[in-house]
Amino acid sequence: MSSRLVEIVQNFTAPKVTLVGDFMIDRYLFGSTDRVSPEAPIPVLRFRREENRLGGAGFVLAGLATLGASVMSIGVCGDDNAGRVLREKLASYGQTIEGIVPCGRPTVEKVRLLGSSEDRTAQQMIRLDIEDNGPIDKATEDKLFAAAEKALTGGVLCLEDYNKGVLTESLTARLIALAKSRRIPVLIDPARLNDYSKYRGATLIKLNRPEAEKATGLPVKDEATARVAAKKLLDVLDLQVVVITMNDKGSLLARRDGSAELLASRPRQVADATGAGDMVLTALAMASAAGASWHEAVELANVVGGLEVEKLGCVPITRDEIIADLLAEHHSARGKERKLDSLIAELAGHRKAGRRIVFTNGCFDLIHLGHVKYFQFAKAQGDLLVVGVNTDNSIGRLKGPKRPVVNEEDRIGVLEELESIDYLIRFDTDTPLDLIKAVAPDVLVKGADYAKEQVVGWDFVEARGGCVALAPLIEGRSSSNVIQKIIAAYS
């Protein structure tokens, strides 16, 4: 994964997003199910607790706000308890909600009953939908459009359509025309419809494979068939970009100029796919507003959508989670050894993600159990372990011309395989002080055969608020002892 994506996320500012769509409440009722009703062959749910979350366009608002966007929400709610909860939840993200218009219909509410027994994970038993999904009336539509006219002074327009009556054909067309007249890109997460004509003229449509099949009437089974479906959508709807998400295969990005590419995503442990599509739209909006290309935006959306499916329910993804995931993938692809410039850049990303950095150094000639336990101790002091490794030249100056026994390429190769170590960097100086100052670790580790004041760089680390940790030694384990035993065995 390109380090450019890390840079994009790190540079998220506060893009202006106007979000129009179906705002709803996801209400969860949790209980225990340890008996069957005497009235009918159904389980009895004994109520334990209730949880309310933002759903639909509300979850997109939560995702955008969590990533730092400035969002104007435009939609409807009812004069009911769910409507009050909706407005409170939206306002809790510090965003403008004056565009949420009260109307004479119930707030869209999905009530899920979840039961568990014997401390097992709660399972959804039934879902109750409270809604009126008929089209909103003309007066309400005009109020929503007026709110959009006021809000659309820049940034991005996102339309989150769940076919609950807000994004009528008339309002959708008016919003797209308004945004185009002001040169504002329009990103659409469409409803699962047979006819997408109301989205004509938008900038981008993001849809999944079943939605693409329904909208085009074409099979979408692989990259080749997805390309055909995407081209049809581009041509018929006069779009600039189509993104078709294809689960673990990644996402197809197709452009108006005829180019198309499948951007792969890495496998994830799926806990719950709910909300993944909403977070994909969120990522596309944030990335495009941050100046990313569509290729970069879709790459980032793959990562964010992947993180979402690893969570149970709709939970917004944070900037730190995205950066940490990107860095982990980048690290895995490149191995552990780094040049200084690359190391410092990557550590800066880890710091922004709140990770605690540990540093140690040494020759590590003839790796033995003492080294392994030492690295395990060091890693336990924080989140990432950076190991400075003396070059052959520096070891020769420190220990004489007969050392090291194992050359630095082989030493680095062995250290690469130790799970405790996250980064390796060579240094050629007699002491690691300059490297310590560059890495600026939170924890500096050395063996307990040193006093703290004998550890090179201890004062620099402590002056920055860090600490020194002395690793316990394993008696009789050292490279020198191993060398002496080898000499004795063969002399």
What fraction strand? 15-25%
User: Largest sheet at a glance?
Assistant: 9 strands, mixed
Described by its quaternary structure, the protein is: single chain
- Which runs of at least 5 residues are low in confidence (pLDDT < 50)? none
Shape: elongated
CATH topology of the largest domain: UDP-N-acetylmuramoyl-L-alanine:D-glutamate ligase
Distance between the termini: 52 Å
What is the strand tally?
18
Q: For the largest beta sheet, what order do the strands appear in spatially?
A: 5-4-1-8-9-10-11-12-13
The CATH superfamily of the largest domain appears as: Ribokinase
CATH architecture of the largest domain: 3-Layer(aba) Sandwich
Helix content: 25-40%
Which class of the largest domain in CATH terms? Alpha Beta
- Tell me the number of structural domains: 2
The structural class is: alpha/beta
The whole-angstrom Rg is 29 Å
The average pLDDT score comes to 90
> Helical region count?
17
